[in-house]
Amino acid sequence: MSTQVHPAPLRTAIVGTGNIGTDLLLKVEASPLLTCVLFAGRRADSSGIELACGRGVATSTDGIDAVVDAQAEIDLVFDATSAGDATRHWGIAEPLGLPFIDLTPANRGTFCVPALNLEDCVEEQYLSMVTCGGQAAVPMARCITQIAGHVDYLEIVSASASATVGPASRANLDEYVHTTEQATAEFCSATRTKTVLIINPADPGIVMRNSIAVSTTERIDLDALRDSVTTMEKQIRSYVPGYRVVVPPVATGDRYMLTVEVEGRGDYFPRYAGNLDIITCAAVAAAEARTGRGRS
């Protein structure tokens, strides 16, 4: 009788102990394919550091320097800091040969949207996870442009609860818009693109919602588009369970639109924090794919 041997989990380090980094920590620890061997930030009083310590995860307030010191024990680095810091951190991680998954809108290398190009990303050292709005909306925008062939104008509007948008994310709003538009241009065929981010202060918080609209002189087969959207929804739900289409594709004149919501698992923030889940789940999927045993 043979005993199946399972490879050890991929050893990861998370740099950034804010909202995104802490939510990512909980998702990494829930994955059978990953483990977090270092959770590093800069503030000893961070609630993320406190949570990690309570779970027995090694922590540091030395940030990326702690990764350098522990590099022999690390297989992959997640960066959940800010666009400026991530750019600097990549300059340090690159010569070490460490795979680097960037959850900030730094836009330094290969875009990774698992529903669209995960297989092409497995061997890349640096992956940009775009933005939360990009992860939620770009795959659906791609569905529209693939059916239409080309659109004149493509607009993405994402709304998230204010409580879930931390100071680093707020400092990167310009980068968020630019990076989301860059990813839209890369994955979709559109003459003009626009990204709008709404930070909603409602209490209780609103569930993350993303609307995708296009204007085109091309006639779009709505039945074919709805089938494509349904297929894409199922694919995204395989790694983001709370992702759902709430307004299927509709047409008004030359304008076509649809809306998706992302409800979180409630790991770190309440379930309305789908903007955390959409990017942390995508990053976990990208890391798991490197083990050869990720979600198919």
Provide an overview of this structure.
This protein is an alpha/beta fold and 296 residues long. Helix content is 40%, strand content 25%. It has helices at residues 19-30, 47-54, 64-69, 83-96, 114-121, 132-148, 167-171, 173-187, 222-237, 274-289, and strands spanning 10-15, 34-40, 59-60, 76-79, 100-102, 110-111, 126-128, 151-161, 190-200, 208-215, 243-252, 255-262. A hairpin with a 2-residue loop joins strand 11 and strand 12. Helix 6 runs parallel beside helix 8. The two termini are 29 Å apart. The mean pLDDT is 95.
Features:
alpha/beta; Rossmann fold; Dihydrodipicolinate Reductase, domain 2; 7-stranded parallel β-sheet; 5-stranded mixed β-sheet; 10 helices; 40% helix; 25% strand
What is this structure, in a nutshell?
With 296 residues, the chain is an alpha/beta fold.
Binned, the helix content reads 25-40%
Estimate what percentage of residues fall within beta strands: 25-35%
Question: What series of H and E elements makes up the topology?
Answer: EHEHEHEHEEHEHEHHEEHEEH
Radius of gyration: 19 Å
Mean pLDDT comes to 95
Number of domains: 2
- Give the CA-based shape: globular
Quick one: biggest sheet? 7 strands, parallel
Strand order of the largest sheet: 3-2-1-4-5-7-6
Low-confidence runs of at least 5 consecutive residues = none
Secondary-structure content class: alpha/beta
Q: For the terminal residues, how far apart are their CA atoms?
A: 29 Å
In the CATH hierarchy, what is the class of the largest domain? Alpha Beta
Second rung of CATH, namely the architecture of the largest domain? 2-Layer Sandwich
Name of the CATH homologous superfamily of the largest domain: Dihydrodipicolinate Reductase, domain 2
Output the CATH topology of the largest domain. Dihydrodipicolinate Reductase, domain 2
Number of helices: 10
Based on DSSP secondary structure assignment, what is the total number of beta strands?
12
